[in-house]
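Need RNA helicase's 3D structure for a figure. Predict it.
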Amino acid sequence: MAEREREKELEAIKEQYLGCKKPKKQVIKPSEKFRSFDWENTEDTSRDMNTLYQSPHEARPLFGRGFVAGMDRREQKKAAAQLEKKIRAELRHRTGAEDRVEDDDLVDKKNAAAADSYDTFDMRVDRHWSEKSLAEMTERDWRIFREDFSISYKGSRVPRPMRSWSESKLGSELLLAVERAGYRKPSPIQMAAIPLGLSQRDVIGIAETGSGKTAAFVLPMMSYIAHLPPIKDENGPYAVVLAPTRELAQQIEEEAVKFANHLGIRVVSVVGGQQIEGQALKLKQGCEIVIATPGRLLDCLESRYAVLNQCNYVVLDEADRMIDMGFEPQVAAVLDAMPSSNLKPENEDEVLDERRIYRTT
Ligand SMILES: Nc1ncnc2c1ncn2[C@@H]1O[C@H](COP(=O)(O)OP(=O)(O)OP(=O)(O)O)[C@@H](O)[C@H]1O
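Structure prediction for RNA helicase:
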């Protein structure tokens, strides 16, 4: 007995200092454990066994620019329209009614219109300005229109730009001339400046080279002159265009003649580098528009070949360049040869910067 006690004691001491010798508990991995596990198909609850629920309504979340996650209501409407068509066909089939294609077409059109006029959030979608008549244009449409063509204004009570030639108030003869010139659409500077010119407002137009600035000032000028009686003898002109160089003056003349010939308006160019007598003769025969470089026009005025007492319309083409080239005194002298009341703006706020410069020097 004492021996057994001793053995037990020894075991306990060994266990304490050398660790126990108990066999390790075997751990079975779940993959091992369930390797041969099988279940009845009906026990599979991961999917609905009822076919009715096999294709549940699918959410179509929209992400990206202009969307927050949500449902595509337009797609749902399309699906609903298809279903409606199917049901109609089925009903017709059952009742033996004839196929009425018009009915389907009508449903199609109605649904297409509904899908187009509502966005994905079921909000009404506005049509683009190009699809609207002038009367339907909203402030927002005009803003988008101006943004589309990079048109911006500074000034008060600015008239709306014109969207097309037909919407301008140029008159049928000028519109015909524009069509014959092959100008299908107005350029942005023309869209913005022509309505201003036609409303007898002073305008400073800024646009890049080759953007159609010439027609933008020539057309309202022609429209203004078309309402006046033709000039007799040397009493003209009604309008003067000043340009810094001979070449530019000639380019403007070419552009002006395209429209002037249709209206019986006479255009004379008065530029340096050519015989002054020839130009004097043309001025004497009478003309409604003079296109000139400042120095040569001043010579003509001083020699009394030209008078500007009927001139109410002045264009300073490339005014900044004329100042850079030192033409300011000549331009000021030409403007002073016109009756001062002609150039006095109704509203002092609307005085052209250039004119102020010329008039004060
Ligand atoms: N609406 C239009 N449609 C088609 N062509 C046009 C239109 N307006 C002008 N043009 C043509 O575009 C060309 C350039 O026009 P224009 O000479 O008036 O430009 P500009 O802005 O005055 O250029 P610049 O700064 O060189 O004087 C011309 O040949 C003109 O006939």
